[in-house]
Design brief:
Elements: H1 12-26, E1 33-35, E2 47-49, E3 54-58, E4 61-65, H2 69-82, E5 87-90, H3 97-104, E6 109-113, H4 121-134, E7 139-142, H5 145-154, E8 160-161, H6 168-172, E9 186-190, H7 200-213, E10 218-222, H8 227-233, E11 242-246, H9 250-259, E12 262-265, H10 275-282, E13 286-290, H11 293-298, E14 306-308, H12 313-324, H13 327-340, H14 346-362, H15 369-383
Parallel strand pairs: 1-2, 5-6, 6-7, 7-8, 9-10, 9-12, 10-11, 12-13, 13-14
Antiparallel strand pairs: 3-4
Helix pairs in contact: 2-3, 7-12
Length: about 400
């Protein structure tokens, strides 16, 4: 399996690769992961260092990728030494290891598209260079309808829809986060602090109105980034109501989600799925999210979580205040979320991934239309009334 993004930097694709690999290993399969890495001390036994990444502006954020002759040699050596039954690459058109591995590999290749950016000029230019590589892919997966549209717009063809997975039990009863001990209501933000599209500025702008209605409310902010910059930019009247947790471990993330009264996702765009929404629902926490199409689909158009108009701090504040004041509504959302999240448990999702693997390795041909229809039928039924 190939992750093009730095393995020692938290992110949705990195978590997807790690969890899918762990689930496959539990089923008795051998999985080795190739990924770029800054810090060798973060290297696990099941991960091969794909070289030192560099920061690149990609898909509305700064991604840490590895590309070039040295990375190409590393990819070729890893494939030759591995003697794998198949290669599964993630984000195949990102300028990094995934694309390089497609170029140098022979045999069955499966690719998963995660990003949502159908109008990206960068993707359009990269894809013109990558068309010959795309023709080598035997099985295509998209984690969401938004990611599928990006694939169709830039590469053509179609893909099986298989959603992101969550190890639901890991979030069910992780215990409380020791730093989240404010006696009042608690809100949680989780995301990269230096990425504007994660929407932290929208949430901070909404905080004065939330505090005015609920004077004991407290916001906890978790994620990598410069905490001093965030503190300096924060309005003085809200500083006593905000705690910056910084970068958290997977266990601490689960504890933070479990501890919050409401998880707030104020993301402003370029989201194809919203894995953290699923994680919050698995932790039994009410979700309040911007009404991005991808978020609306995950939350069944507001049935499993409250939605507010994107980039509207006042609407966010009004929705947060209403939820905090209504424990019965929060509990209703928690119950709906707990039901919703079952479709996204890795124990269910991995069966669909294995069906794609079996199709491309057993026949040596591309994923059949019958298989695509079967999987998409299960996916659509899992979406329920909030389906695409």
């Amino acid at each position: 399996m190939v992750c093009p993004y730095a393995w020692d930097v938290p992110g949705g694709v990195r978590s997807h690769v790690a969890d899918l690999a762990a689930e496959l290993r539990e089923r008795g399969h051998f999985v080795d992961i190739l990924a770029p890495l800054d810090d060798d001390s973060a290297l696990a036994d099941e991960v091969t260092n794909g070289g030192k990444p560099i920061a690149v502006r990609y898909n509305g954020s700064v991604a840490r990728l590895n590309f070039g002759l040295r990375a190409t040699r590393q990819a070729r050596r890893w494939i030759q030494n591995g003697n794998f039954d198949l290669i599964h690459v993630h984000e195949p058109v990102a300028p990094g290891l995934s694309l390089l591995c497609i170029w140098v590999a022979d045999g069955p290749i499966v690719a998963t598209w995660h990003s949502s950016n159908p109008h990206s000029r960068i993707l359009a230019s990269v894809n013109r260079l990558a068309q010959t590589a795309m023709e080598k892919i035997s099985g295509r997966i998209a984690v969401s309808e938004d990611a599928r549209r990006t694939l169709v717009a830039h590469v053509g063809g179609d893909a099986v829809l298989i959603p992101n997975g969550v190890r639901v039990q890991a979030f069910a009863h992780p215990g409380f986060h020791p730093a989240m001990n404010n006696p009042g209501h608690s809100l949680l933000f989780l995301g990269r602090l230096d990425e504007p599209r994660k929407g932290l500025s929208v949430l901070l702008e909404a905080m004065p109105a939330i505090i005015a209605a609920d004077p004991h409310v407290h916001l906890y902010v978790a994620g990598p980034g410069d905490l001093e910059d965030i503190q300096d930019d924060m309005a003085p009247e809200i500083r006593d109501h905000v705690t910056l947790l910084g970068l958290v471990t997977e266990q601490e993330k689960a504890q933070a989600l479990y501890s919050a009264d409401v998880y707030v996702a104020p993301n402003t765009g370029a989201e194809s799925f919203g894995i953290v929404l699923i994680e919050a629902m698995a932790a039994g926490t009410a979700v309040l999210a911007a009404d991005l199409p991808a978020f609306a689909r995950v939350l069944s158009n507001g049935r499993a979580g409250r939605l507010f108009p994107n980039e509207d701090p006042q609407a966010l504040a009004d929705a947060a205040v209403a939820l905090l004041a209504d424990p019965q509504e929060r509990q209703r959302l928690v119950a709906a979320g707990s039901e919703r999240v079952r479709r996204f448990d890795w124990g269910v999702v991995v069966d669909d991934v294995l069906a794609v693997y079996d199709s491309v390795t057993a026949s040596g041909e591309r994923v059949t239309e019958d298989l695509r229809g079967q999987i998409m039928g299960r996916f659509s039924s899992g979406l329920g009334q909030g389906g695409r």
